[in-house]
Amino acid sequence: MQAYFIGIDGGGTSCRAAVADADGRIIGRGRSGASNILTDPDTALRHIEEATRLAFGEAGISADLSEASALLGVAGNNVGDAVSYVQARLPFRHSEIVSDGLIALQGALGDDDGAIGIVGTGTIFILRHADEIHYLGGWGFQVGDLGGGARLGHAALQESLLVHDRIRPGSALAARILDEFAHDPRKIVDFARAARPGDYGRYAPVVVSFAAEGDAIALRLMKDAASHVDEALDAMARIDGGTGRLCLLGGLAEIYPSYLAERHRSRLVPPQGDALTGAVALAVKAFRREGV
Amino acid sequence: MQAYFIGIDGGGTSCRAAVADADGRIIGRGRSGASNILTDPDTALRHIEEATRLAFGEAGISADLSEASALLGVAGNNVGDAVSYVQARLPFRHSEIVSDGLIALQGALGDDDGAIGIVGTGTIFILRHADEIHYLGGWGFQVGDLGGGARLGHAALQESLLVHDRIRPGSALAARILDEFAHDPRKIVDFARAARPGDYGRYAPVVVSFAAEGDAIALRLMKDAASHVDEALDAMARIDGGTGRLCLLGGLAEIYPSYLAERHRSRLVPPQGDALTGAVALAVKAFRREGV
């Protein structure tokens, strides 16, 4: 089989694969289900293979995966056990597993220096400067991910309880949330006891839309969240002088710019490409270099 | 058997009982193990009976519990199922289950109007005014208990991660915490994933002691926490005009006064008695009224 480069963007809800020809041009794409190597590595492996076969199918190529080389960007790439398990079972001739953040960075910036902020349910900030990659933030909902949708939704529930107890003045946002829980704080407590980050995150769009209408609580929550993003962007600018390009990615990428400090807002540029494009580009670099 | 009044303070780590004579004078006390009616009602029942028998023993009385009347203050008294289960199995002739907050209020204020703030691992604020009891706050670690030791400890861990990532400037407190986790953020994330409120709460005394030495992060966390307590106290003052007595109870009661707003600090008085004394007083009132 001719040399093909496969890039894979493995996420918690779906797995995307793209196959590129020897020139690095994407000739087919495929998508399958969840590929979380930490929580369910076997399902992840199945979906990685499925997405890759679909990509070869779209390219009209009868694939022999054991002849192809793939680069995968996944969450949990820093957990050695999970990576070893998956790496040993991948169907490819050569494979490399990197962080989902790194393929997003490559997709957004290409080979240039610069920084990205991934602002979705969680948050993480990644900077490439002088051939080094710096990761800031992340660390998950419980003690990190400040500025992410889960923390934003969580803050909205907490505020609603303060409004219910008349500790803080109410607003339309608090009324909307308290209505949903029949004005019974115990229902909010029950929800919170079982809530996963994604469950809290479903309240983030509610906060965003009330903030857009000028709701006082929603605006305060958005500004608090944006100040966390500002702080992380400042920390990256202290490393590279704030000279590189800066992209926001993720579900809140379109929302944050108007809430950020001007010094960051004025630097923002749209990403060149997405994480899957980045994975393919890194695959080409990794395996062409190795001459495979 | 002569009429005896039993007061019980049932907590998550221990159960305390006191027995009073017909005049309401406490003549014996007993202590046993955990009595959480929500998580382990059968153990709670056993410890309630054990503490009561010890109290009768200290009083030198051969007890017939089925002739005595008891008032119990417990956490979870608003969860109907747990209360019904326990109430049906208590060994007493008459029994009444109220909140742990109510016996604390009675102990602190006697029959007077006024307010208490229980500031321990969690927080709750209770006001008695014009024959009504108002509860504010509480709601547990996930979406409430602002100003409590668990939230304070949690905030310290979160700050330490921001310091680790150089998003915020460090301090001796952050260094102390990062040292404990070998400067490996993943160890903090692992801790947080499994941590119960009490686990976070163990970092509260660390914050308190660093704040006393002027540590910048610890001072900011203490002031943030105290501002939540101030807000709750303000909310109670809006109900009663701030005219009644005000007591702080719980593990942080001695710590908060110096961080609170002057308008609250100047009103603080020491509690008259503890929650167990309050339970006995409420038992006397409840059962003497009923003529039992």
UniProtKB/TrEMBL annotation, chains A, B:
Pfam family, one: BcrAD_BadFG
InterPro entries: ATPase_BadF (IPR002731), ATPase_NBD (IPR043129), Euk-type_GlcNAc_Kinase (IPR052519)
Domain ATPase BadF/BadG/BcrA/BcrD type as annotated: residue spans: 6-264
Keyword terms of this UniProt record: Kinase, Transferase
Coiled-coil segments on the chain, per record: none
An example Gene Ontology molecular-function term: kinase activity
CDD domains per the UniProt record, alphabetical: ASKHA_NBD_GspK-like
Domain of life assignment: Bacteria
Protein name: N-acetylglucosamine kinase
Organism field: Pseudorhizobium halotolerans
